[in-house]
Specification:
Layout (H helix, E strand, L loop, with lengths): L3 H23 L5 E3 L3 H10 L2 E3 L6 H15 L7 E4 L9 H9 L4 E5 L6 E7 H4 L10 H11 L4 E3 L3 H4 L5 H9 L8
Parallel strand pairs: 1-2, 4-6
Antiparallel strand pairs: 3-5, 4-5
Length: 185
């Protein structure tokens, strides 16, 4: 287990890497971090991206409120894609994410490796306003059901680098193994 300090440093590095990844894809002017944490907001400011968030609400409500505020302020984004990019997709890359962005569907859902969680979610801007986010248990099937229930053309994409996230100690250990020196016999 990581100490609280090491976990904070890890999450900070995840956020920095994710913002740089997103900037490579869309440019910093189109990136918003969703968090009510003041330290995260300060880091987002340092990185040159926006931060949206409200205290004491769950992730699904925070995403809904934040996207609505962004689209209200910037209605030209209604025709753009909204990509929900969690910070723990440590094996992701612009090459892996580009097909998600380029897909012609109204909604694109990328499951985790067990096909239980949602690792990446891309919605057409106007579709995001009516979409009820379903992060939590079994979010993959719930997001797919939500999109299809709204009549959105939905595509499921699976990519090994996007299906891997760091949610628990075993996944952290597997990710750390990526950096282990090759063994010579």
């Amino acid at each position: 287990m990581l100490s609280p300090e090491r976990r904070d440093r890890l999450c900070r590095s995840f956020l920095v890497n994710t913002v740089h990844l997103a900037a490579d894809l869309v440019g910093k002017g189109h990136i918003y971090v969703v968090s009510s944490n003041s330290e995260v907001a300060a880091l987002a400011f340092e990185l040159g991206v926006g931060c949206e968030g409200e205290a004491d609400i769950d992730l699904n409500s925070a995403l809904t409120c934040s996207i609505a505020r962004i689209l209200e302020r910037e209605p030209e984004n209604l025709s753009r894609n909204i990509l929900i990019l969690p910070i723990d997709l440590v094996r992701s890359s612009p090459t892996a994410i580009s097909p998600v962005i380029a897909a012609q569907a109204d909604a694109v859902v990328v499951p985790d490796r067990l096909e239980l969680g949602t690792n990446l979610l891309r919605l057409r801007g106007d579709a995001a306003l009516k979409f009820r986010f379903q992060y939590g248990d079994d979010s993959f099937s719930r997001h797919r059901t939500e999109a299809e229930g709204l009549g959105l053309k939905t595509e499921i994409l699976r990519d090994p680098s996007l299906c891997f996230d760091v949610d628990n100690p075993d996944e952290y250990a597997a990710w750390m193994g990526d950096f282990a020196a090759p063994r010579h016999q």
